[in-house]
Amino acid sequence: MRKIILAMAASAALAATGAQAQVALKPGVPSILQWSPEQQREWYPAIETVYQVRTVPRGARVHPLPAAGRTIAPTFEYAGKTWTVDDYMAAYNVSGVLVLKDGKVLLEKYGLGRKPEDRWTSFSVAKSVTSTLVGAAIQDGRIKGLEDVVTNYVPELKGSAYEGVTVRQLLMMSSGVKWNEDYTDPNSDVARAGAAILEPGVNPIVSYMRRLPRANEPGAKFTYNTGETDLVGVLVSKAVGKSLSEYASEKLWKPYGMERDAIWMVDLAGHERGGCCMSMTLRDYGRVGQFMLDGGKAGDVQVLPPWWAEQATTPQITNGAPAPGYGYFWWMRPNGSYDASGIFGQSITTFRDDRLVIVINAAWPQATGRELAMARTAFVNAIREAAKGA
């Protein structure tokens, strides 16, 4: 369990990077890690008032999420008492819970004053969307394959420690490049990467990453590396010749039928953060999960390679935690689910065999924590039990 929490805590580094690598629109905005509960409730649904963003346009059609034949109201035992959905939402500052089975709504609830049309920031859930866009680019022939080397798409990395690293190794967080993800250290890589324009005309994250040395052979070891998730975003943009927002709109938001435009936070160069901070409605989070569960198809159109969705969400490398492992920017959990996960309580949890997608958005009082994770796992497991037979 301790290793799971350490791995989760590492993901909090994304927010530390975000505090410096984004473009603030408000003077004196505190680090997103230090927002008060009041600031979380005000700004998580309106991140575009705090940071510079780009829009991911929706299309004319909305993918329906019809009501299931019945609803569920799970209860569960945790910390010596019986909890209801409302109890959990109130105690853990949850703004939304959505449960889909076979694409139909079993449970949908809102809190913290949020309404169904309100967006909510994703933190690291965006990583899983970026991974999905890699799959779309492979299907489109814009990326030749997972074993292609990253320098073919980001030539500025030639001659660096990324020479010979494959797209697959980046998605597995196993490039072998030395990286310090300690978000308590102001001199760590995660605190410094992308925080300044180092070379005019070169994306700041690329400028920083190409100066790093190699620590391990590519593919040999999992090292949580927030900078590389932004790097994958740059790679996709270069491969397809479009911004991430444009490509996400073209390959996912429009064809699958998202209900509202998403927004995506940008870095100092105006490029979307591949590792952070999309904002979308609760139901659109559910549609992202359902799209992957349905094998990457939008209607009759195969947006992702037929093999992509399953391979991306099954273990590809051991990540040091007592869990099945890590896929392509997706986490595998001991309860048999796979997750897109973000700090402060954001998650899309999928049980493939149960055809079940569970979305939770929250404003936890801290980025991660053992008790927070245990309570959410108990809640998710209770939802799964209640959904059986539905």
Explain what this protein looks like in three dimensions:
This protein starts with a helix and ends with a helix. Strand 2 (76-78) and strand 3 (81-83) form a beta hairpin. It has helices at residues 2-11, 13-21, 37-43, 85-91, 125-139, 167-171, 189-192, 204-209, 226-240, 244-256, 282-293, 308-312, 370-387; strands at 53-56, 76-78, 81-83, 94-101, 104-110, 119-121, 262-265, 278-281, 297-298, 301-302, 325-326, 331-332, 338-342, 346-351, 356-362. Helix content is 32%, strand content 16%. The chain is of the alpha+beta class and 390 residues long. Mean pLDDT is 92; it is low at 1-19. The strands form 4 sheets. The protein has a 7-stranded antiparallel beta sheet, sandwiched between helices. It has a 4-stranded antiparallel beta sheet with strand order 1-7-8-6. It has 13 helices and 15 strands. The radius of gyration is 19 Å and the shape is globular. It has one domain (2-387): 3-Layer(aba) Sandwich (Beta-lactamase), CATH 3.40.710.
Task: Provide a short characterization of the protein structure.
The protein is an alpha+beta fold. The protein has helices at 2-11, 13-21, 37-43, 85-91, 125-139, 167-171, 189-192, 204-209, 226-240, 244-256, 282-293, 308-312, 370-387; strands at residues 53-56, 76-78, 81-83, 94-101, 104-110, 119-121, 262-265, 278-281, 297-298, 301-302, 325-326, 331-332, 338-342, 346-351, 356-362.
Which key features would you list for this structure?
390 residues, seven-stranded antiparallel β-sheet, 13 helices, 15 strands, 32% helix, 16% strand, globular, disordered N terminus
